[in-house]
Amino acid sequence: MMDKDNINKLTEDAINSIDGISRATTGPAFYNKLLDRISEKENRSRMKKFSSGSGWKIVLVFSALIIINLFTLIKYTGLENKRYEQNLYSFIKEYSIINQTYNY
Questions:
Q1: What's the CA gap between 60 and 18, in Å, rounded?
Q2: How far apart are alpha carbons 31 and 26 in whole angstroms?
Q3: Do residues 76 and 82 make contact, with C-beta atoms less than 8 angstroms apart?
Q4: pLDDT digits 0-9 by tens, 83-104
């Protein structure tokens, strides 16, 4: 077992070794360089996300939606319009909406 003097000496040696320690200092441009590197990495990661295919997927989806809408618009305003008019006319004729005659 250690005696009390030996323990005190070891403790004082440990405390004295801490006395010489000072806070680390950085150069004046360190924080600017650090912020530049961080923003550079963020910009690269954004470019990777867009070029990885997600941007092209969005463009492809919107293109498909536009094509479907155009197809639907052309189909229902062109040939289907005549068929719609025929169905409407037969409906009007069936329920005698035109030339209504009332028998009282």
A1: 64
A2: 9
A3: no
A4: 777 877 887 777 766 665 655 5
